[in-house]
Specification:
The chain is mostly helical and 143 residues long. 49% of the residues lie in helices and 3% in strands.
Length: 143
């Protein structure tokens, strides 16, 4: 729940900052894009670390996606107005954020510590011989 709310907050803040940033030639280096592309994987990895459940890795991504799609909806503000205009920075924000979050969410569960399977807990394994030459119960060739 907290991860999804953090994702929504990141989506709103970074979405409002998409049009801002320094101009390099005719291209605006978007602060919102950088915030989303760097912040979303951090939120996803943090959610996995704090929850220790791999399925919760997608919660910040889902929250961010809901906020990002709401900002791109034209009926949210007033008819005809959009917060994310059809500009390259907006497309980088949307597609890059989804890609960064999906990669982080799919690789984050691999960072969790491995646990013993529930079926093997409490089951004693037979002892193996410590000496490779020891063969108990097999007659030897010498005698």
């Amino acid at each position: 729940m907290v991860g999804a709310l953090a994702g929504v907050l990141l989506g709103v803040v970074s979405g409002l900052l998409v049009p801002t940033g320094p101009d390099v030639g005719s291209v605006t280096l978007s602060v919102g894009c950088a915030l989303a592309l760097l912040g979303l994987p951090v939120l996803v990895l943090g959610a996995v670390r704090l929850s220790a459940v791999g399925l919760l890795a997608a919660a910040p991504l889902v929250g961010w996606l809901v906020a990002a799609l709401a900002l791109s909806e034209s009926q949210l503000v007033s008819p005809g107005d959009v917060l994310l205009e059809a500009r390259p920075a907006s497309y980088v924000y949307l597609f890059g954020g989804v890609l960064a979050g999906a990669v982080a969410a799919s690789t984050a569960p691999a960072l969790l510590p491995r646990r013993a399977p529930a079926s093997s807990v409490g089951v004693a394994l037979p002892a193996l011989p410590t000496d490779a030459g020891t063969t108990e119960g097999v007659p030897s060739a010498e005698g």
